[in-house]
Amino acid sequence: MTNIQKTEAFLREQFAGCAYFREHPADGEYRLQHSYRVAHVAREIARREGMDEEGLVIGGLLHDVGYSLFFESEESWGEHGRMSARLARPFLEQLSLEPQRVREICYGIAIHVDGKADFPGEKTAFALSIGDADDVDRFDAYRIYDAMEYADFRNLKMEDKKKWLREMLDWNNWRLTQKSGTETARQMIADRLLYQRQYYEKVLEQMERSETI
Fold it and tell me: Residue 111 and residue 85: Cα distance in Å, rounded?
């Protein structure tokens, strides 16, 4: 088995062993599917930027592995990156990876939520690219549906629908100003945010025309 195949097996094993995911299989399926999508984005960034492809794919697969422990812990949501790094490190140390690669993968995983790790490291383009790959998937087409479903958009009152849409557009404008680890990631994120903006603007336009002539 390759290191990537071993990582896939480890990820699936961790999620399969999570009691919360067994009780909420749709959540477990989403988290696994998201991890694969992030790994695909990480591979694209690595290839276009000439970076460590194997390492970034592994980081993408494992960036949320800590969710297998998160639901049974007292930790806040913001800790799941650091939890993922702690869980990933012993596994990565068993692979044929140099210690520096293990440290950099773990650091990228740890900081992907809030930019903070509980161990020393450098915010290299590689480390930042794990979080960038996560953002690319989080801002893509499926997440528009997911966000609206989570907000129970269909059942909101009209004013609350418009308020929610305006807040999403405000956030979208702010996020477009934030930096990425590479130019490739910046372009990928901007493309998805602009698509998202166009969608929300069209929905808001429809809402504005839904109550009076």
Answer: 9
Specify whether the CB–CB gap between 77 and 27 falls below 8 A. no
Give the integer Cα–Cα distance in Å for 116 and 180.
Answer: 16
Over the stretch 44-103, which tens digit does the pLDDT of each residue have? 999 999 999 999 999 999 999 999 998 777 777 779 999 999 999 999 999 989 999 999
- Cα distances (angstroms) measured from residue 176 to each of 58, 94, 208: 27, 39, 25
Which has the closest alpha carbon to 203: 157, 155, 169?
Answer: 169
Collapsed DSSP state (helix, strand, coil) of residue 82: helix
Give the C-alpha separation, 125 to 203, whole Å: 36
- Cβ neighbour number for residue 67 with a 10 Å cutoff: 24
Q: Specify the pLDDT at position 73.
A: 72
As a whole number of angstroms, the distance between CA 151 and CA 161 comes to: 9
Q: Which of these, 144, 121, 150, 156, lies nearest to 202 by C-alpha position?
A: 144
State how far the Cα of 196 lies from the Cα of 211, in Å rounded to an integer: 24
Closest CA to 55 of 140, 124, 139, 138: 124
Residue whose structure tokens are 């970034």: 56
Confidence of residue 188 (pLDDT cuts 50, 70, 90): very high
CB 185 within 8 A of CB 133: yes
For the cut 90, the answer to whether the pLDDT of residue 6 exceeds it is: yes
